[in-house]
Every structure is written in C-alpha cells, then in structure tokens.
Amino acid sequence: MKSSSARAATSAGRWILGAAIVVATAAVGLGLGLLGSPDQERDRRLDARRVDELRAVARAIDVHWHQAGTLPATLAILEAAEEPRLSLNDPESGKPYSYQSLADDSYELCASFSMSTQLGGRHAFWSHPAGLHCFRVAVEEVPRESVFGSRVPGV
Q1: Residue 110: which of 102, 98, 123 has the closest Cα?
Q2: What is the mean pLDDT of the chain?
Q3: pLDDT band at 153, cuts 50/70/90?
Q4: For the chain, what is the HEC assignment?
Q5: Predicted pLDDT of residue 66
Q6: Could you tell me the residue ranges of all domains in the chain?
Q7: Is the whole model's pTM more than 0.85, yes or no?
Q8: Left if phi > 0, otherwise alpha if psi is -120 to 50, otherwise beta: which for 82?
Q9: pLDDT at 130 over 80
Q10: What is the tens place of the pLDDT at every residue in 96-109?
Q11: Distance between alpha carbon 60 and the CA centroid of its chain, in Å?
C-alpha cells in the first residue's frame, strides 16, 4: 500500500503533467493564430515571391526602355538580356505573368495572388488584393531600388 506522501507526489506529478500539456497546446494554438496555418504561410511566401519577380521584370523593362527607347514587344525579349535570369512564370502554376504595353511608356504586369497584401513605404505600389491583379506601370515611375542588391556603395 502506498503511503500518503507517495500518493501526494503521484498526484502532484499528474497535475504538473496536465498543466504542461495545457500550456503546450495553448502555445501551439497561439502560434497558429498569430502566424497562420502552414498553408497560409506558404501562400504568403508565394505571393511575396510573385511581387519580387514582378519587381525584377519591371526593372528589366525600365532598363530596356532606357536603352532601346521602346517597351519590349514581349517579356521573352528580356530573358536573354538579363543576368541573373528573370523569372517570367508564376512559381506555383507555372503560367507566364501577363504583360501588355498600354502606351509608348506604360504597360501592365499581371499575376494571380493567393491573398491580399498591403505593403508600406517604398513598396506600397506593389500592394494587391487576392486573385488576379494588374499593376499599371509608367516606366518613369518604376521604383529605382535595386532588385538584386547593390554592387556599388551608396546605390
């Protein structure tokens, strides 16, 4: 037969184990609530990648326009000229990003996004709703920040 102190120790151990399980469950639930599900995080990363790729394409179009004096007829023209290589297809579906010249110095870049994103500061232009969204760009308005990192100090 167990002594009363042994029963108390067993009871306290069970209580501590139960409390630890409750705390761990709450921590996981809070983490999922704050960060979102793994699927939401995947969608967020894919959308961020789409924006990064569209920014690189816009920068390449801007460079082409400044060098050639015209917008490229298609995005394929930019592929050969760019280093590092441009990503012209959606990372999830593999479908090409949509590009359409609107005027001599403006165009549209379109992509389908998984979720709505509001960006701030110098990247606010690239905010988008969920679903298909087109960015109307005038070459002179393309943000001039380096897409791939500056190789020249102060640029």
Answers
A1: 98
A2: 82
A3: very low
A4: CCCHHHHHHHHHHHHHHHHHHHHHHHHHHHHHHHHCCHHHHHHHHHHHHHHHHHHHHHHHHHHHHHHHCCCCCCCHHHHHHCCCCCCCECCCCCCECEEEEEECCEEEEEEEECCCECCCHHHHHHCECCEEEEEEEEHHHCCCCCCCCCCCCCC
A5: 87
A6: 1-35, 38-141
A7: no
A8: beta
A9: yes
A10: 999 999 999 999 99
A11: 19
Bridge partner list, 109: 99, 135
Among candidate residues 134, 140, 126, 132, the one with its CA nearest the CA of residue 71? 140
Tokens 């409390």, residue located:
19
Cis peptide before 84 (omega within 30 of 0): yes
Tokens of 13: 């151990």
Amino acid at 27: A
The label of the residue with tokens 């630890």 reads 20
Residue with tokens 């917008």: 71
Residue 29 — very low, low, confident or very high, per pLDDT cuts 50/70/90?
A: low
Burial profile 117-138: b = 16 or more Cβ within 10 angstroms, e = fewer: beeeeeeebbebeeeebebebe
Amino acid in the structure at residue 28? V
